[in-house]
Amino acid sequence: MISGFRDPFEALFAMQKALESRRASDWMGGRTAGMGSYPPINVFQRGDGFVAVIELPGIDKNDIEIEAKENTLRISGRKSINYDQAASVHRRERLSGVFDRTLSVPIQIDPDAINAEYRDGMLVLFIPPAESAKPRTIKITS
Amino acid sequence: MDTQQELQVQQKREVESKQEATIPARVFLPATDIFETDEALTVILEMPGVDKDKVDVKVENGVLQIEGWIDFSRYEGLQPVYTEYNIGNYARSFQLSSKIDQDRISAELRDGVMTLVLPKSERAKTRKISVS
User: What's the structural domain count of chain B?
Assistant: First the structure.
């Protein structure tokens, strides 16, 4: 679907369109009770594995906890916003609080092989498929 | 502030401009906090996915304009399978009420959150008026 990135606008537009059309995806099926809760999550396929991209702006890396077990992923933490009491507030749109979300992914994952990266307020989880879930070629012996 | 409150999902709001863009790409409004002290106006914007080299901040005719571009190459080779939010660049502008000392505006971008400190010019600072 997405090939070649010569025109950044076109690439962005194509991605946005793809994201839009996938809104009603049933990839998670009824499995994820946490649908619609914080933080919002996008899951992409890359090769055999998956990449989960989560927007978590303004959170200390040490305040994010990620746990993986069998085919569930749990992301929890807190987002705190502290302002000087003396300031008069004109606008307050940013939200703070605690979050705890569990995702059940419909694939076999290897909890030890998951890599997490936090950059520019984006948490990215690289989820390789479990060794046991990889297809095997079966040789006919006789 | 109560930090124990459970966080809720905030739907991204799209920019509604008078003119239409030539490219039908989506641009979002960053969630913003603004507060004022005697010395300065502080504007804090959430722009997840924006690198510090990819922002543009300017004050023109009393209007503060902020733009941020996401690094789209990070999505290269990815096929969406399950999505809950859309992605795009960010843009927002504010009409400034106080006189701002434009030369002393400072900006910091950390973990997808940009903090702008706009110091008030000497003229615009609050003065206490004594009644005799």
Answer: 1
Q: Is residue B95 part of a domain?
A: yes
Q: Which of A12, A57, A82 sits opposite B48 (nearest CB)?
A: A57
Element (H, E) at B46: strand B40-46
Q: Quote the mean pLDDT of chain B.
A: 85
pLDDT at B2: 47
**Cβ–Cβ pairs < 8 A, chains A and B:** 194
The answer to the question of residue B132 being in a domain is no
The answer, yes or no, to whether ipTM is higher than 0.85 is no
Tell me the whole-structure pTM to 2 decimals: 0.79
pLDDT band at B6 (very low <50, low <70, confident <90, very high): confident
**Per the CB < 8 Å rule, is A43 touching B82?**
yes
Domain total in chain A: 1
